[in-house]
Amino acid sequence: MTNFTKEVMHVGEMASGAALTVPVYRIKGETGGRSVYIQANMHGAEVQGNAVIFQLLELLREIKVNGDITLVPYANPVGCNHKNGEYTLGRFDPITGVNWNRMYHFDADIIKPFVRKSIGQDDKTIEQNFKALMINSIEKKLDHNNYGLTTGQRIAYQLQRLAHQADIVLDLHTGPISSKHLYCPEYAQESASYFDIPHTLLIPNDFAGALDEATFCPWWQLQEAFAELGINFSISAEHLNKESFTVELGSQEQIDLDVALEDAKSILSYLSYKGVIDSNDFQPQSMTRYACYLKDYKAYYSPMGGMVDYLAEFGEPLAPGEPLARILRMDNYGDGEPLHYLSLEEPVIPILHFASASVNQGTELYKVFANYFTL
Ligand SMILES: [Zn+2]
């Protein structure tokens, strides 16, 4: 591919001096269409996104690309290599305990002064200036910070600097043992139907440190700040259109290249809808797409310790009283109750469960959609 480049980005140093690096692949768009940033494997065990990036690069060799596409596998070289025995840990920085996907930056105080300065300007100028402001605030953090950064912040901010340059951001993750699901900002609900993902979580305009939020919240809050003054600045408008998603591709610790090909096609279906690629070969599959609001995405904590036999199927509505799981307690055998069935009192859709069969009382056993509906 003549429009293809590879860069190795330096994101930190280990104690021995060994460099922490991240590969960055870029495909230059031909017509200046919407640009895209896709990264994978911020959480160490969530490896399927790397295979999806491989399949995307393979498919994109044969496709006319309108907008720039930046792809970053192995986004977190510390998390990716964080093994303990046969397992990859890599969800939390082992030094600070902070979740690797809660270290991105957004300072909401930049919004109001920017809006005051921008009144009367056209949308394109506002867009360019705001993008520059966001990139600049990340660069200040990286380069003009006397007191330094944590290892995780240094990695996250460099990734975020790339992400802010794009109109569309996809952060590829997986659950522990999980069905495919999509974190989608409420305003971009329509786009969720272009992914072949049967479960969508609709998320509000709250920043909690994740990459998707760090890239859509600034734009969404900007839109709201203009709206308070009666000014229409719609980030869903054709000429702006800023969207970010966290794409949960299934279960951790697994690579399946055939499934990755399907996942890549699903992403291309969305990118084709957005005009990023020039192809009619990628259309969304027809399927029932369930959704719920983030407030209704419930964690179910184990009411007791024991050994879990997970029973509920992912993705299918589960009637009240139907068992989610049963817990084996061999210590009770002969003089007590060795089997305990667990169920909920409202209809839910199980989305993911804990990765191990042995749990303590209070372990987050399942995550489920409550008050779900179809898109
Ligand atoms: Zn993750």
Automatic annotation (TrEMBL):
Any GO molecular function: metal ion binding
Lineage: Bacteria, Pseudomonadati, Pseudomonadota, Gammaproteobacteria, Alteromonadales
Keyword set includes Translocase: no
Keywords: Hydrolase, Metal-binding, Zinc
InterPro entries: AstE_AspA_cat, N-alpha-Ac-DABA_deacetylase
Gene name in the database record: dapA
Protein name per UniProt: Succinylglutamate desuccinylase
Succinylglutamate desuccinylase/Aspartoacylase catalytic domain segment(s): 33-272
One Pfam family this sequence matches: AstE_AspA_cat
CDD domains in UniProt: M14_PaAOTO_like
Keyword Hydrolase listed: yes
Cofactor: Zn(2+)
